[in-house]
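We emphasize that the prediction below concerns an isolated chain of 264 residues; any contacts that depend on oligomerization or on bound cofactors are therefore not represented. The input was used exactly as deposited, without trimming of termini.
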Amino acid sequence: MTFSQTYRTALMAIAGFLLMAAFHTGAAAQANSPQGVRNIVIVHGAWADGSSWSKVIPLLQARGLHVVAVQNPLTSLADDVAATRRAIALQDGPVLLVGHSYGGVVITEAGNDPKVVGLVYVAALAPSEGESVASVTKAFPPAPLGSEVRADAEGFLTVTPKGIAEDLAQDLPDKEKQLLTATQGPTAGAVFGATITTAAWKTKPSWCVIAGNDRAVSPELEKAEAAAMKAASITVPSSHMPMLSHPKAVADLIVQAAAKAGSH
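Result of the prediction step, given as a token string:
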């Protein structure tokens, strides 16, 4: 056998090996993927960015799901809804929308997109028509976090390092608290008074993660919302950041929601 023949034979063997490896990898991913919605669009809340989902995203990807984290400008509710709708439009099929905190308000409005087949609220707010963050929280005791919010000259709000350490993420390690402080997105105060036009949760199946030790949104409000939505819910002993303190529980619920939403 000449050198060129040997080389060609070796290349064919390598190509065959790579083809088989790709086949088995694809089959494994298919086996791990839930039957249902494949596209997960995740929406962060106020004083955060997409990195707040850094622990949940790999868990969802490992289950064969396609995940996109929206980067909200946090300049107005309309701007944040528009950013979320752009992310939805880029998906190649049905979408499960997931929102944390104020991100729950965003998905309540953006979730009316016909491609959205389900909603997951994580320590989130879920106003009805004509309601806002300010109005739905009024009936509950003020959250401790509120005293650690500061406004700048242009009306954008930030949380003090003390507020993040003690009221937003009190159950996270110091390094993670410092990272949240450094990456927090200043949030226009006006977003908290912006009202919902049409509440998507009234027509689409919903799931909730209730943060039992939340000091930013009242756990009682989260429970009342879940009851109003008739949502399947779990409660975790978490701060306002359950996707960072209990990522597996949050990811598991999203996987369950993706499987069930696709069957509706």
